[in-house]
Design brief:
Number of helices: 5
Shape: globular
Structural class: alpha+beta
Order of helices and strands: HHHEEEEEHHEEEEEEEEEE
Radius of gyration: 20 Å
Largest sheet: 4 strands, antiparallel
Helix content: 25-40%
Strand content: 15-25%
Amino acid sequence: MILNNNVKVIGRNDPCPCGSGKKYKFCHQPIDQKMMEFRRKGAIVPSKKLLKKPAEIEKIKASAKINVAVLDYVAENISAGMSTEEINMLVHTKTVELGGIPAPLDYEGFPKSVCTSINDVVCHGIPSPDEILKDGDIINVDCSTILDGYFSDSSRMFCIGNVSEENKKLVEVTKKAVELGLKEVKPWGYLGDMGQAVNDYIKENGYSVVEDIGGHGVGLEFHEDPFVSYVTKRGTDMLLVPGLMFTIEPMVNMGKCDYYVDESNGWIVRTKDGLPSAQWEIQVLVTEDGCEVIAW
């Protein structure tokens, strides 16, 4: 249907614009109506462009399959005595072998194919042949993949050799916080539901979460809206609508949440107090009946 101002209105019996092949009334019309109701109530509702279509989701999942396989490959090979540049080469070689492109390489000037963040490095660690993994280190390997123009993103923590009990606990609590946050990702809930669940658990264990570096939308671009915070409250922030895709990746500090960026490179983020930091990252899709983890 075309109105006088040349704006196309989708009819109930028209094919749904998402490309599913179903009629609009049997596909996205109920979702669109519900979004309108929430918008009228003042909720922060995602734009249509942030909601992934079925064909896009399949493409993103194919990208994520590579991302997960690359992190599995790192898990099989990482060890004390290895340089972070060797990790970079493992990631680059395996990603290309599987048909993907490492998303971090040359992204806004980032010089490597993966981020490797050891001990007090919060995020954006730059691999180096001079940085050698030692017994007792904890390291986050943050891997991101492009396949046919579609993006995936996830990271894991690795404990190298004999890690202290306090560092093990930091790694475990951070992973558990992500799992608790994931349980709060439900259609027609809010991002703040997830954020508060994560923050409450982190604080219960005596840690702090970095406040102004967080997760992000992902899929059609490396970084999309929304910004995903872990200091928000239940019932606030963006509405969780089916098709919305984002990362859950709290950066958890053993000490205070303060950090600084290394001025020599403009990338590496470290804790101000020099205490360790940990991060796990998963990529999540909001579905009509819950959520689905796309990459881990």
